[in-house]
Write a structure and sequence with these properties.
Shape of chain A: globular
Structural class of chain B: alpha/beta
Largest sheet of chain A: 5 strands, mixed
Radius of gyration of chain B: 27 Å
Largest interface: A-B, 64 and 74 residues
Low-confidence stretches of chain A: none
Mean pLDDT of chain B: 79
Strand order of the largest sheet of chain A: 1-2-4-3-8
Shape of chain B: globular
Low-confidence stretches of chain B: 1-11, 275-335
Order of helices and strands of chain B: HHEHEHHEHEHHHEEEH
Radius of gyration of chain A: 19 Å
Mean pLDDT of chain A: 94
Strand order of the largest sheet of chain B: 1-2-4-3
Oligomer: heterodimer
C-alpha cells in the first residue's frame, strides 16, 4: 500500500501521497504481524486499517485473527475490543491460479467476534468502510478483485459516483439490487436470489434471461447479515436461491 | 497514560478470583483460564488480552510498541519528559521457538520500537526440554536481529533482576529502542494444573538441582545481608499468608458467572446505528416504487463530532437515494 505502488491492485493509490509515509506504509511480508499488530495499535487508541494482498494469504495471519483479534473483547469481558479493519482482495479473475483466486468467506464468517463485509459497488465499499472505521470491533472487508475498476465484463454497475462525506451503511442492512415484477410474484413464477459481491453481477446477468422474474438481494455484510430483509423477501417469493 | 506492560502484575486477590472462575474476576469475568491477565484500569499498567497459544503475545505486544511509536511520530502522544511509555513482552524460553517471534522481532528491530522482550528461561516447555527443542537460547537467537540489545541475567537473584530491568527500562524510556532480557530460572513446580511436578524430574538429583536455584531462599538471604532482621522477615511472611488466606476464602464465596451473561461481549456496541421508526419499510417495497423516498436515519455519535451525523441512505426496499447535501444525480446513476 506504500507510496510507490499503492498496493498490488492500486487499492491504496494516492493515499500515501495524501497522508504521508508514516501513516500509509508497507510492512515486510508477514501476515501474522499485519493482522496481529492491530491488537496492540488498537489498545493504544489507534484505528489500524491493514491489508493482506490476496485472500489466499490470509491463512498465515489467520492464527492472529482467530486466537487474538476475535477473542480479545469476549475473553477480556469487554475491556479490550480490537478496533481494526482488514482489507482482503478476494475471488478469482483472469488467471490467478489456485493461490491467487480463493474465496475465504466460508471460514472467516465462522469466526465468532469478527464482522465481515463484502460490498458489490464502489459506493457500498465507502459506506461499509466508514461503518467499519467507527465500529469498535474487528471487521474483515472482502473486496472482489474483479470489481476493482470493473475489470470483468458485466460488472460496470460496480462503478458508482462517490457518495458524499456523510454516507455510511450500517452492517446488517442488505439492499435489493434488482426487483421482480409483482405480476410474476403473484403468479408464483418469481425467485429471490440472495447473494453478495461478485455474485450480484453473476445473478444480474443471468436474470436478463428471465425478465421480471428475478429479485436479487445483495447482503452487503455477511456478519451480521440482514435476517429481516431476507425473510421478508423470501416470504414474498416463496422461492429462494443463495448464490456465492 | 500509564506505561503499557504485558508482564503479569497480579495481586493475590486477582490470582484467587482468576483461578476459580468467578463473576468478579477482573481479567475476564470468569471466562478464561487462570494466569491469563488482562487489565484496562486508569491507575495501573495496561495489560491487553492474550490467548493461551504460546508466543502469540509477541506480535500484539509489538503492535502496542508500534502504536506508541506512531503516536510519537504524529505528535499524538502526551508529553512525559523522561518517563515515556515502555512495553514489556513477557515470554517463556520455549515460546521463543515459535515462528511469529521472528515477525515481531523483525519489526521491533526495523522500526526501533520501545519494547522489552523479557524471557523467562526454565528450560522446559509443557512437555519437552531445551535439549530436545532448540539450538540456542533466546539471547543468542536475538543476535540475528540487528539493533536489538540483549542482557542475560540469573533470574533467581532479586537484586540482579531488579537492577537490570531498571537499567533497561530507563534506557528504553529515553532512547526508544528494543531490548531482550534473557533470565535463567528453575522450573520449581509444574507447567500447568494438568501436569504433575514429578513428571519433569526423574530422580532426587534433578529435584535437588531445581530446588538449589529456588529464588525465595536467595531473596531471604539478600534481605538479611541488607540488614533486615529475622523477626521482620517473619512478620512479612505472616502478613502475606494472612492476605492469601483471606483472599482465598473471599474467592471461594464469590458469585459464579451468570448464565444469562454468557453471550455478552462478543462484540462491543457500535455507535453506527439506525432509527427504525424513520423507515417506511414495514409498508413493503412496492409502496415505494414511484419515487417516494424511504430512509433510514443512520447516526454516529463520537467525541470528534458532537451531536453525531445524520445520514439519509437507501433502505432495503427502494432504489432511491437521498443525501444530506443533495446530489440529485445520484438517484438514477446508482440504480
Amino acid at each position: 500500500v506504500g507510496a510507490r505502488i499503492g498496493g498490488v491492485f492500486r487499492e491504496a493509490a494516492t493515499l500515501a501521497q495524501t497522508f504521508g509515509d508514516d501513516r500509509v506504509f508497507n510492512t515486510p511480508i508477514q501476515e501474522a504481524f499485519i493482522v496481529g499488530s492491530t491488537v496492540g495499535m488498537s489498545a493504544v487508541g489507534l484505528k489500524p486499517i491493514v491489508e493482506v494482498q490476496f485472500a489466499d494469504y490470509i491463512w498465515p495471519g489467520l492464527n492472529q485473527l482467530f486466537t487474538e483479534v476475535s477473542r480479545s473483547c469476549y475473553l477480556s469481558n469487554g475491556k479490550w475490543p480490537v478496533s481494526m479493519i482488514l482489507r482482503v482482495p478476494i475471488g478469482a479473475y483472469g488467471s490467478g491460479g489456485p493461490f491467487h483466486s480463493s474465496s475465504v468467506e466460508s471460514v472467516v464468517t465462522n469466526i465468532r467476534g469478527v464482522k465481515v463485509a463484502y460490498p458489490s459497488t464502489g459506493a457500498d465499499l465507502k459506506g461499509l468502510m466508514k461503518s467499519a472505521y467507527y465500529d469498535p470491533n474487528p471487521v474483515v472487508m472482502l473486496e472482489h478483485k474483479g470489481l476493482y475498476w470493473s475489470k470483468i465484463k458485466g460488472t460496470e454497475a460496480a462503478k458508482t459516483i462517490e457518495p458524499d462525506e456523510d454516507y455510511i451503511i450500517p452492517f446488517g442492512k442488505g439492499r435489493i439490487a434488482l426487483e421482480a415484477d409483482q405480476e410474476f410474484i403473484d403468479k408464483g413464477e418469481s425467485i429471490l436470489i440472495v447473494t453478495y459481491g461478485m455474485g450480484v453481477y453473476w445473478a444480474s446477468n443471468a436474470a436478463k434471461s428471465f425478465k421480471g422474474q428475478v429479485e436479487i438481494l445483495d447482503l452487503r455484510s455477511l456478519i451480521p447479515w440482514d435476517h429481516d430483509l431476507v425473510y421478508e423477501r423470501a416470504n414474498a417469493h416463496g422461492r429462494i436461491r443463495v448464490g456465492a | 497514560m500509564i506505561p503499557f506492560y504485558w508482564a503479569s502484575v497480579c495481586a493475590h486477590i486477582i490470582a484467587c478470583f482468576n483461578y476459580w472462575p468467578k463473576r468478579d474476576d477482573p481479567f475476564s469475568g470468569g471466562r478464561t483460564y487462570y494466569s491469563h491477565p488482562s487489565l484496562n484500569d486508569d491507575d495501573k499498567p495496561k495489560i491487553p488480552h492474550q490467548s493461551s497459544a504460546t508466543g502469540m503475545q509477541a506480535i500484539p505486544t509489538t503492535g502496542v510498541a508500534m502504536g506508541i511509536k506512531l503516536k510519537e511520530i504524529h505528535g499524538m502522544d502526551q508529553v512525559y519528559g523522561d518517563d515515556q511509555p515502555v512495553v514489556v513482552c513477557s515470554i517463556g524460553d520455549a515460546a521463543m521457538t515459535e515462528g511469529e517471534i521472528a515477525e515481531a522481532m523483525q519489526m521491533a528491530a526495523l522500526k526501533q520500537l520501545p519494547i522489552i522482550y523479557l524471557v523467562q528461561d526454565n528450560g522446559w516447555d509443557i512437555s519437552a526440554n531445551e535439549e530436545e527443542t532448540r539450538a540456542m537460547n533466546a539471547a543468542e537467537y536475538a543476535l540475528g536481529f540487528k539493533k536489538i540489545e540483549t542482557r542475560s541475567i540469573d533470574g533467581t537473584v532479586f537484586s540482579e533482576s531488579f537492577n537490570t530491568m531498571k537499567e533497561v527500562i530507563d534506557t528504553v524510556r529515553k532512547e526508544r529502542r528494543p531490548f531482550l532480557v534473557h533470565a535463567k530460572v528453575p522450573l520449581l513446580n509444574h507447567h500447568t494444573s494438568g501436569v504433575r511436578m514429578d513428571m519433569y524430574r526423574h530422580d532426587e538429583e534433578e529435584v535437588a538441582e531445581a530446588r538449589s536455584r529456588d529464588p525465595y531462599p536467595k531473596l531471604i538471604q539478600e534481605l538479611r545481608d541488607a540488614g533486615v532482621s529475622d523477626d521482620e522477615i517473619e512478620a512479612l511472611e505472616n502478613e502475606a499468608r494472612a492476605i492469601v488466606e483471606s483472599d482465598y476464602q473471599e474467592a471461594l464465596q464469590a458469585e459464579e458467572p451468570r448464565a444469562d451473561e454468557l453471550l455478552d461481549h462478543y462484540f462491543a456496541p457500535t455507535p453506527v446505528s439506525l432509527k427504525k421508526k424513520e423507515c417506511a419499510r414495514t409498508q413493503g417495497p412496492r409502496e415505494n416504487r414511484d419515487g417516494r423516498l424511504c430512509a433510514f436515519r443512520y447516526q454516529r455519535v463520537d467525541a470528534q463530532t458532537p451531536g453525531g451525523i445524520a445520514v439519509w441512505a437507501r433502505c432495503g426496499c427502494t432504489y432511491r437515494w437521498r443525501f444530506p447535501r443533495s446530489r440529485n444525480t445520484c438517484a438514477n446513476l446508482w440504480r
